[in-house]
Amino acid sequence: MAGLVTGEQVRLEGFLAAAQVTVLDVTRGAVTGTRRLLVGFPESFRVEYVVAVPDHAEAAVAVDGEVRILTEVRARTTPPVQSTLPEVVAFTAIDDRPAVVFSAPGTPPPRLASQPPLPDYLAAMTVWLNALWRSTQGLVGPVDLGRYAADEMLARYAGSRRLAPVLGAVYDARRRVARLHSRRTAVHGCLCVAHTYVADDAVVSVDDWSLGAVSGESLNDVGGLAVRIAGARLPEVLTGQTPFAQTIRDFVISGLAGADLPPTRWCDVLILAQAERAMGAVEYGVVDEIGLLARAVRALPAAPDEPEAAS
Fold this sequence. Notes:
Layout: E1 8-9, H1 12-19, E2 22-28, E3 34-41, E4 46-54, H2 60-76, H3 79-82, E5 88-94, E6 97-107, H4 118-136, E7 140-142, H5 147-157, H6 164-178, E8 181-183, E9 185-187, E10 196-199, E11 202-206, E12 213-216, H7 218-230, H8 234-239, H9 243-258, H10 266-282, H11 288-299
């Protein structure tokens, strides 16, 4: 915006007036206790800026962290990836809580956004993830996907007869991927359709890095995006008998290949990603996701991608 020094402190009302923009929509942030104000021109209803707002003092840490993560990721990655990342435009405050104005490159409001067909969307996301990983890869470490979920499930549900098959499946999947090693890369932490926008077969923008990390587990983004898109159809995805299921499975397989990991571990990635999602939801008293995990486990073959024991 003309006359504004990037990153300076401004009053939000003054910023909106000077830029001749208004708040078009409000969405929940990736971190609980945060919101995103989608700001743009009312005539075109196109988002030009996103304001990250904490609802309480504890959530302000996430907003501060997002600024740091984006600054470091932008410094490490390539211009094509940089063009999809938000930039800090200004710092402001809402109700005496610090907030940050980010750029929003070419992003319509989520409720108006028209994403391409799922195969094209996931193909574009695969290209974007591979570019992010190549430009930010660091040290090699053991695959961490599912470790938190496995530990939490054992602590909460050890001895539960009803969830014993779920515990067994999660631990079997965790045992298999724990043998693997991958390079740490920048991760977004909450990839989903609401935080990404694809047009003309390419990723245009990736918003809300408040759960991101400069150095993390790349499979978290692959598995997380896959299970969020699959939703209640995750058991169907595990059987691989429909075009929808095949599309998501192919995305996970491509992600494993991009991370130099065995593509045969696609089923483990989906189970562990859903386990992480389920245990995160349980912390807030939501049990729907663990119910979905149980249905997904029931859909599994006796030993995914491994020979079954002789009868």
